[in-house]
TrEMBL record:
<dbReference type="GO" id="GO:0005840">
    <property type="term" value="C:ribosome"/>
</dbReference>
<keyword id="KW-0687">Ribonucleoprotein</keyword>
<dbReference type="InterPro" id="IPR013025">
    <property type="entry name" value="Ribosomal_uL23-like"/>
</dbReference>
<keyword id="KW-0699">rRNA-binding</keyword>
<dbReference type="GO" id="GO:0019843">
    <property type="term" value="F:rRNA binding"/>
</dbReference>
<keyword id="KW-0689">Ribosomal protein</keyword>
<comment type="similarity">
    <text>Belongs to the universal ribosomal protein uL23 family.</text>
</comment>
<dbReference type="GO" id="GO:1990904">
    <property type="term" value="C:ribonucleoprotein complex"/>
</dbReference>
<dbReference type="Pfam" id="PF00276">
    <property type="entry name" value="Ribosomal_L23"/>
</dbReference>
<dbReference type="InterPro" id="IPR012678">
    <property type="entry name" value="Ribosomal_uL23/eL15/eS24_sf"/>
</dbReference>
<keyword id="KW-0694">RNA-binding</keyword>
<protein>
    <recommendedName>
        <fullName>Large ribosomal subunit protein uL23</fullName>
    </recommendedName>
</protein>
<comment type="function">
    <text>One of the early assembly proteins it binds 23S rRNA. One of the proteins that surrounds the polypeptide exit tunnel on the outside of the ribosome. Forms the main docking site for trigger factor binding to the ribosome.</text>
</comment>
<dbReference type="InterPro" id="IPR012677">
    <property type="entry name" value="Nucleotide-bd_a/b_plait_sf"/>
</dbReference>
<dbReference type="GO" id="GO:0006412">
    <property type="term" value="P:translation"/>
</dbReference>
<dbReference type="GO" id="GO:0003735">
    <property type="term" value="F:structural constituent of ribosome"/>
</dbReference>
<comment type="subunit">
    <text>Part of the 50S ribosomal subunit. Contacts protein L29, and trigger factor when it is bound to the ribosome.</text>
</comment>
């Protein structure tokens, strides 16, 4: 197993994520592109000391950006939606 801090890149704090957190005890994270659901679950449980019920992942395609005639592309990244057990919480999101 890899280091849990290498798997979890950062926590995503968005309006949609806030609604998911309040309504269904779900949290959003940007994770390493080559991480699988089992590694993500293990990393979240080790870092935050919580029990994860479900992990859903999604590949987010990078947008094409232009500057005059030049065209580039932002990198693709992976998003994980973590569902925690009832009554559990991650304090990182409560501070925001």
């Amino acid at each position: 197993m890899r280091n849990p801090h290498d798997i979890i890149v950062k926590a995503l704090i968005t309006e949609k994520g806030t609604r998911m957190r309040e309504g269904g005890n779900k949290f959003l994270f940007e994770v390493s592109s080559d991480a699988n659901k089992i590694e993500i679950k293990y990393a979240i449980e080790q870092i935050f000391s919580v029990h994860v019920e479900e992990v859903r992942t999604q590949m987010v395609m990078g947008k094409i950006k232009r500057l005059g005639r030049n065209q580039g592309r932002r990198p693709n990244w992976k998003k994980a939606i973590i569902t925690l057990a009832q009554g559990e919480n991650i304090d990182l999101f409560e501070q925001v």
